[in-house]
Design a protein that fits this description.
The protein has about 425 residues and is of the alpha/beta class. It has helices spanning about 5-20, 35-40, 50-90, 110-120, 140-150, 165-175, 185-190, 195-200, 205-220, 235-240, 240-255, 270-275, 295-305, 310-320, 320-335, 340-355, 360-370, 390-405, 420-435, and strands at about 125-130, 155, 225-230, 260-265, 285-290, 410-415, 415-420. The chain has a five-stranded parallel sheet with strand order 2-3-4-1-5. The chain has a two-stranded antiparallel ribbon with strand order 6-7. The relative contact order is 0.08. The model is unreliable at about 15-25 and about 180-185 (pLDDT under 50).
C-alpha cells in the first residue's frame, strides 16, 4: 500500500502537466493595469461651483451692459425732449384760422388789445379773463393774435370732453406722455402700448408743471414772461371746476413771481361767476368782447354778397353776433328765402325754450320775459313783481334762469341777465305781441 502511493502521486502530476501542454484554454491570471493608463482613461470630476460662478459673472456683465445702455438712453432722451420743448416755446404754438381774409372782419380796437395780452412782457401786472358770448369771434381774434405774436405764446384749447384736457395741453407744448425713465420701459411701451389712458386724464398737471419749468428757462434766457392762452375755459367751469381753480391759482402765483401770463378765454356764464368769487381774481383783469356794430355788420354782409335790400332785416334778426350772421348768410347764399330763414331761427328758439320751461314754472318764465324785454340787463330779484315770491318760488326762479342760460336763451353778464342774442329777444317780443303773457 505504501508502495502504491508514490506511483499514484507521480501519475497525477503527469496528467496535470499533459493538460497544460495540450489544452487550448489560456492559463488563469489576474489583470493589473498600468498606473499611467489609469490616469489617461479616468473621467474628469465635474465642479458645479465653477460653472455657477461663470454664470454669475455673465449675468453681472449683461445686467451692467443693460443698465449702462438704459442710463445712456435716459440721458439722451431727456436732453432731446428738453431741446424740443424749448424750441416749441420759442417758436410758439400758433393755431390755424379757418377764415379767409376776404371774410374776416377786422376789429382794430379788440385786435390791438389781444395782441397786447399775448405779447411776452418784462413785468406783467395781471392775468386776463376774456369774456364774450358764443359766436362773438373772440376765439378767432385770439388765434390771430397768437399767430401774429408767435414767439413765447402757447395756445391750449379745452376740448368739450374735459377728460382729454391733459392730452390737449401736452400736444400744445410738445410734451410726450410716453417718455420713459428707462430703456426697458420704452421697449415695454412699444410692445404693449400706452400704460393707461386714464393716467393721461388725471395727469394734466404733468404738462402744466413742465410749462412752468419752461417758463423759468424762457424768462432767464429772454428776459420776458411767456404767455399761456387757455381757450374755451367754460368747459372746465361746467365739468371740472377743480381744474379751473388750480389754473386760476397758478395764474395768480405766476404773476406774483413774475413768471408767465395766463389768458383765459371763456363765454359768459359759469366760468366768470366761479372765477370772480375767488380771491385769486384780485390779480385778474376782465375784458369783454361784444357783437359787431352796425358798420361792421354792413361790412360783414357785403363781403358775403348779401343783397343790400335785406341787410337791415338780417341785422334786426340776429344783431351783430358773428356766428349767427355766418349761419344766416350761408342759408341765404344757398337760395333760401329770408322769411324761411327767419322762421327756422324762431323754431330753434322754440325748441330750446321747451327744454327749459315746463308747466310748473311757466308763470315764472312769463315774469322773466316781462322784465327782460323792458330793460337790457336785469337781476333775479326784479322778476318777483309787486308781490314778493316765497322761498320755494324764488328757488324755482333761480333754477329756471340757470336752465335758460344753459339753453342759450339768456346770458349772465355783470351779475345780471340779458338775452343771448337778438334772435331770442325777437322771439320773446313776438310772444308778447301774441299776448302769450
Amino acid at each position: 500500500m505504501h508502495r502504491l502511493f508514490p506511483l499514484a502521486k507521480k501519475a497525477l502530476h503527469s496528467s496535470r502537466l499533459y493538460s497544460r501542454l495540450y489544452s487550448s484554454a489560456p492559463p488563469p491570471f489576474e489583470y493589473k493595469p498600468d498606473f499611467h493608463q489609469v490616469l489617461q482613461t479616468a473621467q474628469p470630476v465635474v465642479n458645479p461651483f465653477k460653472f455657477r460662478w461663470k454664470a454669475v459673472k455673465i449675468g453681472v456683465f449683461v445686467l451692467g451692459s443693460v443698465s449702462s445702455l438704459s442710463a445712456f438712453y435716459v440721458i439722451v432722451s431727456h436732453k432731446l425732449d428738453e431741446k424740443r420743448l424749448k424750441e416749441t416755446l420759442v417758436k410758439g404754438t400758433c393755431p390755424s384760422i379757418h377764415t379767409t381774409d376776404s371774410e374776416y372782419i377786422h376789429r382794430p380796437s379788440v385786435e390791438s388789445q389781444f395782441e397786447r395780452m399775448v405779447t411776452p412782457s418784462v413785468n406783467p401786472a395781471s392775468y386776463f379773463v376774456v369774456v364774450g358770448e358764443q359766436g362773438t369771434g373772440k376765439s378767432t381774434m385770439m388765434k390771430a393774435a397768437c399767430s401774429k405774436v408767435g414767439s413765447g405764446v402757447i395756445y391750449v384749447n379745452v376740448p368739450e370732453d374735459v377728460q382729454d384736457f391733459g392730452e390737449s395741453f401736452a400736444d400744445s407744448i410738445g410734451f410726450n406722455f410716453r417718455a420713459s425713465n428707462s430703456l426697458l420701459g420704452y421697449l415695454h411701451t412699444l410692445v404693449y402700448g400706452e400704460e393707461n389712458e386714464q393716467e393721461k386724464e388725471r395727469n394734466w398737471k404733468l404738462p402744466y408743471r413742465k410749462f412752468k419749468k419752461l417758463a423759468i428757462w424762457y424768462r432767464e434766457k429772454y428776459g420776458t414772461a411767456p404767455v399761456l392762452v387757455i381757450d374755451n375755459t367754460n368747459f372746465l367751469a361746467m365739468h371740472a371746476e377743480y381744474i379751473l381753480e388750480v389754473l386760476q391759482l397758478g395764474a395768480k402765483g405766476a404773476i406774483d413771481e413774475n413768471l408767465f401770463v395766463t389768458v383765459f378765454v371763456t363765454s359768459d356764464g359759469f366760468a366768470l361767476t366761479q372765477m370772480e368769487k375767488r380771491s385769486a381774481f384780485s390779480r385778474g383783469k376782465l375784458y369783454r368782447v361784444g357783437d359787431l356794430d352796425d358798420v361792421q355788420i354792413k361790412e360783414f354782409l357785403s363781403k358775403r354778397k348779401i343783397e343790400p335790400s335785406i341787410q337791415d332785416q338780417v341785422r334786426d334778426l340776429v344783431g351783430g353776433r358773428v356766428l349767427l350772421l355766418s349761419k344766416v348768410c350761408e342759408e341765404l347764399n344757398a337760395g333760401i328765402p329770408f322769411e324761411i330763414v327767419k322762421s327756422d331761427q324762431m323754431k330753434d328758439v322754440e325748441r330750446r325754450k321747451k327744454r327749459a320751461v315746463k308747466p310748473h314754472n311757466e308763470y315764472i318764465y312769463n315774469a322773466v320775459c316781462r322784465v327782460a324785454t323792458s330793460q337790457h340787463v336785469f337781476e333775479a330779484e326784479e322778476c318777483q313783481g309787486a308781490k314778493a315770491m316765497t322761498e320755494e318760488e324764488f328757488f324755482k326762479l333761480e333754477m329756471l334762469l340757470d336752465s335758460l342760460v344753459i339753453e342759450n336763451i339768456l346770458s349772465k353778464v355783470d351779475g345780471g341777465y340779458t338775452f343771448h342774442s337778438n334772435v331770442e329777444r325777437a322771439y320773446v317780443l313776438k310772444e308778447c305781441e301774441r299776448g302769450s303773457f
